[in-house]
Amino acid sequence: MDRTRPFLKGLSLLAAGFCLAGAAVPEDSADQAALELEAAAEWDEFLESVGHRLALDNVRLCSRRVWRTGIVVHDLHRYAAGSRAAAIRAFGVGLRPSILALAPEGSAAQAGLRPGDILLSADGAAFAESRIGRAGTGRGTTAALDTLDAAFADGAAVLEVERGGTRLRLPVRAEQGCLSRFQLQTSTETNAGADGLWVRIPTAFARTVRSTDEFAALVAHEFAHNVLGHRGRSQISQLFNAGTVRAQEIAADRLSVWLLDGASYDPRGAIAFWQRFGPSQGTILAGPTHPGWRRRVAILEAEIAEMRRLKADDPEAISPVLALRSTETSAPRPPARRR
Ligand SMILES: [Zn+2]
Fold first, then answer.
1. How far is the centre of ligand 1, averaged over its atoms, from the C-alpha of 222 (Å)?
2. Tell me: domain 30-178, CATH 2.30.42.10, correct?
């Protein structure tokens, strides 16, 4: 598995920044919007690449598993109404699900799938066209990922795609990894999230990292919540359950160290991130639910030392935090509550 390419690509993205600094500014601001979406798609690829690696290399730690291929899907409804014209110019995206990005080391890329391919069917099951919904809900994207997961339930599938007006049938073998879906969100928030299935990283938060290890640390913290079976919580319910949420935050930080090490990222990337990002945030991120950045650095330092000690005795040692895994983890998710 070639891991150099995404790493180098990640570094070049970090160097280039998110705003195309240094690129010629097009006269037409509509073209600028399309270029920014294309730049964001490179971050989608970077996120999928990091998430794919974390999910595959830590599969022995996960009770919920899925066959992974490294495909990032989108359709027109992933974009807010004001961005759809730019999305069409940038990607030619329509109502049918298509490939936005691929983890370069994932099996779909290796099998010849390419960004821009329109997904027609998987093992004969047709992908549904996205229906008009609330802007940016990604409802069609979720349906397409469900279709992919069903087709790959036996580890392999034949994907039928349309590329440049031609239909292609490509057999793909998947690899088993932890269950989690990774999504970059166009947002100015600096609050990433996990809800037991999705890991969502806002673009503004991604832009704050300075190395691949720092980015991996952000992703690994959210991914750890999913591995531990933590559910997403609304801001209000977080305040009512502050003690539980705080314990979950500490558990996710501690497990993230092991997940990073297991996927050959430097777990000290998390420390580098908090030491730089923490002071700039004042006390915004701390409070009853989240420990302050100094406390988080201390927790991470202690966990790295403990992991090194346990792995020196037994290279196959697993994180003691996994014993805290929610017993709900393997239970099916209940239907969303209706208001
Ligand atoms: Zn968290």
1. 6
2. yes
